[in-house]
Amino acid sequence: MQLRYSFRLYPTRGQQAALGRAFGCARVVYNDAVRARRTARENKLPFPRAGALSRILITEAKKTPERAWLGEVSSVVLQQSLRDAESAYSNFFASLKGARKGPRLGEPSFKSRKDTRQAIRFTANARWRLTGAGNLLLPKIGEVKVRWSRTLPTVPSSVTVVKDSAERYFASFVIDTDPAADLERFGPADPDHQIGIDLGLKHFAILSDGTKIENPQFLRRAEKKLKKAQRELSRKQKGSNNREKARLKVALAHAAVTDARREFHHQLSTKLIRENQAIGVEDLAVRALARTRMAKSVHDAGWSQFVAMLQYKAQRYGRILIKIGRFVPTSQTCHVCGRKDGPKTLHIREWTCPGCHTVHDRDINAAINVKKAAGLGGHSLRSADKTTAPVVAQRTETGSHGLPDVARVA
Questions:
Q1: Burial class (CB in 10 A: 0-12, 13-18, 19+), 328
Q2: CA 82/CA 204 separation, integer angstroms
Q3: Across the strands, what pairs with 205?
Q4: Which contiguous run of DSSP H or E holds residue 324?
Q5: Are 101 and 91 in contact (CB under 8 A)?
Q6: Which of 25, 36, 113, 247 is the most exposed place for a label (fewest CB within 10 A)?
């Protein structure tokens, strides 16, 4: 299984300038590849192949006065930028044919130097390496200081250097994990430890054993600070240095919220995966819920990110994750007698079953029904949609983000 381990970088001013040149050169090559594709389509010519693009846009372009500065960066960075353009078009065509899941993708567009996220990738051919002092040696950039939050389990196959909107730098390593070592790390869980999870807004997660986990509401808590920073930004003159400083404050405030939410999801997902052999969870229609009056709270909760973490961690550590269909009436069904009592408005937090007269906590009852619908504990509701499809770990599977008030992933 491949994962990404992300760590904070602290380049010097000279190294930041070198990275800026590399970002710019990679962007130019990508845009040239997109332009070549569009020109071929407009002239009704066959799309140029990757080898021809590499020769024209990199090898021959370096010999011209207009593109001579492409030789100032590693050629691997430029080649990987061409690969990104090829992948973008492959995904676009697959989306048009319906072979790619998810929303339909648009045609690849040009990248801008004002994009909030810049990235370049170094493969093994670039001869990058980790030094004995714990620094990251990159070709034509130098030794960059890394803040290590943990040791890498194996030798990385590639590294991507990322600059985010808050002007922070990260090194994202691709790691091939050892399944045996992963299973040994957590060990086997008790087969009887199986839970259902009902995700909510007042409480982030309610477990079938009655445990309720509070919703930290990171965005709501930081709203006052974010509003002040955004208000100061709106008052600055466009193009001024003060406006850039104000923009950076806004970006850092949003980054702090994002990092804190991600760390919370990692802490909770790791704890649940470690303690339970099987987990049932609802397949929520987050996109639809984000179009309601609860949109801000739904986005603040970050359910999709949390479930994605449960998915890949379950695959990595030999656990079972079952997602049930979103139309299973978990909040309407009595988990004791199985009677369906009909829809209930959100303000009803407790209700009494007309059949067996059991008083139910709405959320705990839903979590128990999620567990049953997932086929855990020897019970099952109808219309259960079971899936254990794994997902690839996100860029920030683990990392150090420079936030001292945020707990690190265990």
A1: buried
A2: 42
A3: 199, 213
A4: strand 320-324
A5: no
A6: 113
